[in-house]
Every structure is written in C-alpha cells, then in structure tokens.
Design brief:
single chain, 251 residues, alpha/beta, TIM Barrel, 8-stranded parallel beta barrel, 12 helices, 8 strands, binds glyceraldehyde-3-phosphate, Triosephosphate isomerase, EC 5.3.1.1, Triosephosphate_isomerase_AS, triose-phosphate isomerase activity
Length: 251
C-alpha cells in the first residue's frame, strides 16, 4: 500500500548505546507530531533487538540493512531473514549500492535475498540507481530498468505489493550532490511506468517509491512535493534527530 515513508539508514555508524538514545529521541519526537508518515530506522544488526524495544512499532518501525541469501547453515558472519524477523524488525534494506559495490552483491544474489525476505514476512526496501558515468552517458533509465527486471520482476503481483523501491543515484550518496527535484520526479515516474507495464496501473499507483542521496532538512520538502516521490531513504541526515525530524515533517 502506497504511503509516505522516511527511512533512516544508519549504515555502519553509532554504538549500541548511541543508537538506542537516537531511537528513543526520534520515537518520542515523532509521537509528538501529527505526521502520518511511516518512519523506519535502518539499524546495524546488533542494535535491532534493543531499538525494537525502544520504538512504538506503529509510527516508528525497524529495518535491517541486509540479510543473507541463504536460509541457514555454515555461513559464518551472515544473518538470515528468519533471524532478522525474529528480532521484531519488519523491514530489510536490500540492493543498496554500497552492498553491490563493496560486497559483490549481484542481481542474482539480490533476487535470492528478496525471495527470502518475503518468505519470512520482511518487507524489502529495494534500492536501485545508476553511477555517475551511467548518468553522464544517459544510461540511467536503462540501468534502473535492468535492476528492477533482474531482481524483482520475477515476483508475483501479491509479492510485489510488499516491495518499497528506493531510487538512489549513486553519485548523490554521501556527496552532498542531490538529484534535482525534476530529475528525481522523472525517474520515479519512469519506475512507476515500468511497474505499471509489468503489474498493472493499480499496483504501480500503490507502490511507494523513495528518493535517497544527500536528502536533508533543506531539500526534503522540494523533493517530496513531486507526485511520484513518496519519501526518502536517508543516510547521513538520519544520524541526528533534529535533521531527521525536519525531513519527517517535510511532507
Ligand atoms: O541509504 C541511504 C543513502 O545511501 C543516502 O545516503 P546519504 O543520505 O548519506 O547521501
């Protein structure tokens, strides 16, 4: 179901104590607003159990930043989708460009992770987006289309309804360089049109599509005012309660 979502991705930041303190502050400040926006905290694995206990689980929910592409067994260091679900998290971020670039996560691996997340009742926030050279070569539409086709478009319509897409141009992540509102709208509308071609207009209209990449308190309002931008996946600015709250209340 389409809704406004602001999801923080803490990445590899904050100790457990710092993370719990931040979650506590975000939770109480969100509760004090009238926002209808779904807030999600994408925490490191080791924080999840404590953060789940800290938030109200309605307005503020918790995401893992990854899960394994295997069910269980001898995979040292990995965390399965079933384990994530057992902590109380409802969401998992998959396909982030940092996972693709630094940990060799291919489209085939991401397809397996998506299937396991859904089988364990976790909702994927699935990231797509092009690198700078691809944008400069005007290949961004093609790249995003391929990423969706390779890792998501095998899903049934009922499965696809659980997916949230995050469009994150890699050149905008952590760089302070944001896609312009027009650039974001253009590609979000394109993503929605691809979903419509594959699953029909009703499902496309119901899909939540987030923007990620140097989204902050200063630019969130303008980005979110676009008809096909339903919220954001926020990295750096999710680490400070003031900045994150300003983004949450930007709708
Ligand atoms: O997952 C979040 C994105 O990578 C955006 O990160 P950023 O807001 O620090 O640019």
């Amino acid at each position: 179901m389409r809704k406004n979502i602001v999801a923080g991705n803490w990445k590899m930041n904050l100790t457990l104590q710092e993370g719990v303190a931040l979650a506590k502050e975000v939770n109480s400040r969100v509760a004090a607003t009238t926002t209808k926006c779904q807030v999600i905290l994408g925490t490191p694995f080791v924080h999840i159990t404590e953060v789940v206990k800290t938030v109200d689980n309605a307005k503020v929910q918790v995401a893992a930043q990854n899960c394994a592409n295997k069910v269980s067994g001898a995979f040292t260091g990995e965390v399965s989708a079933a384990m994530v679900k057992s902590t109380g998290a409802n969401w998992v971020i998959l396909g982030h460009s940092e996972r693709r670039a630094y940990y060799g996560e291919t489209a085939a691996i991401l397809k397996e992770k998506t299937d396991l997340a859904l089988a364990n009742d976790l909702q994927p926030i699935f990231c797509v987006g092009e690198v700078l050279a691809e944008r400069e070569a005007e290949k961004h539409f093609e790249v995003v289309k391929q990423q969706l086709a390779d890792s998501l478009f095998h899903l049934t319509a009922d499965q696809f309804k659980k997916i949230v897409i995050a469009y994150e141009p890699v050149w905008a992540i952590g760089t302070g360089k944001t896609a312009s509102p027009a650039q974001a709208q253009e590609i979000h509308a394109f993503i929605r049109s691809l979903i419509s071609e594959k699953y029909g207009k009703e499902i496309a209209d119901d899909t939540t599509i987030l923007y990620g990449g140097s989204c902050n308190a200063g630019n969130a309002k303008e980005l979110f005012s676009n008809p096909d931008v339903d919220g954001g996946l926020i990295g750096g600015a999710s680490l400070k309660a003031d900045d994150f709250l300003a983004i949450i209340t930007a709708f």
